[in-house]
Hints:
Blueprint: E1 8-11, E2 15-21, H1 26-30, E3 38-40, H2 43-53, E4 59-63, H3 65-76, E5 80-87, H4 90-101, E6 105-111, E7 116-123, E8 128-134, H5 148-151, E9 156-160, H6 167-179, E10 183-187, H7 191-196, H8 198-207, E11 211-215, H9 216-223, H10 228-236, E12 241-245, E13 251-255, E14 258-262, H11 275-288, H12 293-307, H13 317-335
Helix pairs in contact: 3-11, 9-10, 11-12, 12-13
Amino acid sequence: xxxxxKSILGIGNALTDILTILPDDTxxxxxxxxxxxxxxxxxxxxxxxxxxxxxxxxxxxxxxSAANTITCTSIFGMPSTFIGKIGDDELGLLxxxxxxxxxxxxxxxKSTHSSGRSIVFVSGGNxxxxxxxxxxxxxxxxxxxxxxxxxxxxxxxxxEGYLVQNQALIRRAVKxxxxxxxxxxxxxxxxxxxxxxxAFLHDIIDNYVDIVFANETEAKAFxxxxxxxRALEEISRHCKIAIVKVGKDGSWVKSGDEEYHVPxxxxxxxxxxxxxxxxxxGFLYAHxxxxxxxxxxxxxxIIAAKVVxxxxxxxxxxxxxxANREIDELINETRSGK
Length: 338
């Protein structure tokens, strides 16, 4: 494994995102999906929703929070590996080939259930996202699937918060990652996941996690504090680095006595899907290069600003090139002490 660039291992739900842009909230109301939430649905409901949105036009993109982050770190040049579970079906094949296309080394176990999917509704002027998720095969990833050798040789281990409902899996994962000497990062993923697993999250973060990514609602659910800056302060007591993302207002980053507000980079947003996942990739990439805290936040902001300009989580080559130019410039300036 290339040691010039630090390596990363991610674990998460192997999902295919099925994206559609809604003209109004009728469909959300029909299927009792609160705007901005992430709701789990059974296969039958998932199939009904899928059929309902097909005439509106849909886009299929291999997704899942940690998978999105790991795909981006791979594009940045970090040796990147992803652990997940798929079904023996078309969506599973799409997911695997997508990861291979972006240079991700996949550790994808097979399940007898259908591959997971996440129906993403994009609505309103601020491109708010609502998720209806059928986890399927992804839910079958269990603690027994994990072996110590998967973790050895990786510098970073990134977990998506959606997995914390499987507490045995996460406990084994963080234990193996710690034994392998990984820096452990966690993206909290969704406010309702945080609310229903708060005690477990506190325990895991206190004992294992080095870097925590949260948005405003997740930070509030975790800390019971409304103000994002004060919530950041509270989260930072539990880990080495805390990040609270505040949408168009950028993000707050804190480590020990260091604290910065990182403005969002200019963008013309059409869909916020994957913005948090790509922010995490940019932050971790910069961190792996030994960049200062503020620069890590800036790199996260630069890449997140590019992904909100496209529908879905996959950017075109030109946007990647533009992002890389800006990021390289920032990193070179930092290294030369400008």
